[in-house]
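Sat 14:20. Reprocessing the chain from the morning session after the first attempt stalled halfway. Input below, unchanged.
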Amino acid sequence: MPTLDVAAIRKDFPILSRKVHGQDLVYLDNAATSQTPLAVIEAITHYYSYYNANIHRGVHSLSQEATDAYEQARIKVQKHFNAVHAYEVILTAGTTHSINIVASGFEALLKAGDELLVSALEHHSNIVPWQMAAEKTGAVLKVIPMLIDGTLDMAAFHAMISPATKLVFCNHVSNALGTVNPIQEIIGAAHAVGAAVLIDGAQAAPHIQADVQALDVDFYVVSAHKICGPTGVGMLYGKEKWLEKLPPYQGGGEMIATVSFEKTTYAGLPHKFEAGTPNISGGIAFGAALDYMHSIGFDKIAAYEQELLVYATKALLGIEGLEIYGTAAEKTAVVSFNIKGLHPYDIGSILDQMGIAVRTGHHCAQPIMDYYSIPGTVRASFSFYNTFEEIDRLVAGVQKAKDMLC
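Finished this time. Tokens:
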């Protein structure tokens, strides 16, 4: 039985009442971006309607109100992820921006022959910045291999890691397959050889409330738009000792202490990494999104989404010729699949005509697709506002697409 009052929750999301191609929308592309509840939309509207002003720089009332609201949002993020200090939370443009801050900073810390370990399950945003850093420094990028079920080869990982390893980076949850990675084991092994760890939590954040102190992770990154927040804002958590070591990523206003033509000194944390005017309304709305999800309860959300995952997996496997990629015992609410002989794009296009939104393609994870020797998958990803009836519509739609294309 459902653990949430989904009918009531759906009323909080205006977009869920619209039609696409004359059909009631079934939104199953939550791994790409979640939908936005009224509470978050209203937080953005309220900012622009009543106290729109730049922050940290003004003595007038609007600036003070905006600054207070923005910094309160930072504290909400700090508490949600259980960071020791609010200044260990850098508000960024999103996961990609956060990773690039760390990768750019590590260019000053790496030398030729140092080793970087990346998992085979990564999104491109946690691959390309490190390739760029390796090219600039002479560091060596090594890949932790994956297994056929979509899990990491942990025996290979333990054989690879060594005192030459300076940083390990992997996702908490695979965006393409839904696999939950054993990050506690990875963090412990990395720290045993003196290496730091960056965890991409973008796909985990909607389903798992990560505790950065319990994990003892060095860096953890997320995007607000995966957790009912707006686009263009996210978080870089870093342990204070690491954030102090890294040089600034960008120069400009806000990130300085003093400026002269002879020398500039930099601001302390978190402003050292927050050059220029930030996405003020987005930061405030990020806090509102966390408030909204906490009002429902992360444990309840996770339990319900697992019910959706189990139901969808069983129902889809009833379609002859359908293969699911990523069958790890620990998964979040993602099902990536293909039907033998059919291109995922064709299936997705037919589903769209039925009002069903899924993602098709390589999901910014081309190495995973190369491993399976496929061009991409159809990916259905679920959130707490989805229903079992919507999954029934998905299954019926996939069967219809198969009948039309075969």
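Residues 41-294 form a domain with the Aspartate Aminotransferase; domain 2 fold (CATH 3.40.640.10).
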